[in-house]
Design a protein that fits this description.
By secondary structure, this protein is α/β, with parallel strands linked by helices. The chain has helices at 9-22, 39-48, 86-91, 143-151, and strands at residues 2-6, 28-32, 64-70, 73-79, 102-106, 119-126, 134-141. Bound molecules: adenosine-5'-diphosphate (ADP) and magnesium ion (MG).
Length: 152
């Protein structure tokens, strides 16, 4: 497991931007952490690499937002907090998006068995002492994501 600590919203955005330089079509990133942890902040930073950060917000009610990043790449931004279980995820055809673009999934741990075999799990904790500090624990599932984490 790799740990990255950010000390501001901006630093979390930078981490997302860094990820954008590495991730390619078909990659899946699962973001776990309480409300206000910085899940959406990370996705916003990712999208800023493509100049699309103003189009990002938590798809809490829509479950999924697509943002076209360029001619052949889309971001699929899920927030599965409101899904009851994996069946609801399958019912919306959720798993059909994975190989069609880059996926970020907020609260992905709630539908664990519907996740692809390989993905990057990111668990975000707040710091008890400092309200601007976030601890990112990067847990790669699969060799492809080992390589990605090594490059961050
Ligand atoms: N280091 C940090 N990284 C990310 N956000 C931070 C940080 N410190 C404070 N914040 C604040 O925490 C909140 C994170 O919100 P958001 O990204 O929407 O969280 P989530 O999507 O996990 O609910 C924002 O209000 C942001 O300003
Ligand atoms: Mg969010």
């Amino acid at each position: 497991m790799t740990q990255i600590i950010t000390k501001s919203y901006e630093e979390t955005r930078e981490l997302g931007k860094k990820l954008a330089k590495i991730l390619t079509k078909g990659d899946v990133v699962v973001l776990n952490g309480d409300l206000g942890a910085g899940k959406t902040a990370l996705v916003t930073g990712f999208a800023s690499f493509y100049g699309k950060d103003n189009e990002i917000s938590s798809p809490t009610f829509t479950i999924i937002n697509e943002t076209v990043l360029n001619d052949d790449l889309s971001l699929f931004h899920f927030d599965v907090y409101r899904l009851e279980d994996e069946d609801e995820f399958y019912a919306i055809g959720g798993e059909e998006y994975f190989d069609k673009g880059i996926t970020f999934m907020e609260w992905g741990n709630t539908i664990k068995s519907a996740l692809p075999k390989e993905y990057l799990e990111v668990n975000i904790d707040k710091d008890d002492e400092d309200e601007n500090v976030r601890i990112f624990n990067l847990l790669p599932h699969g060799k492809h994501y080992d390589d990605i984490v090594e490059r961050i």
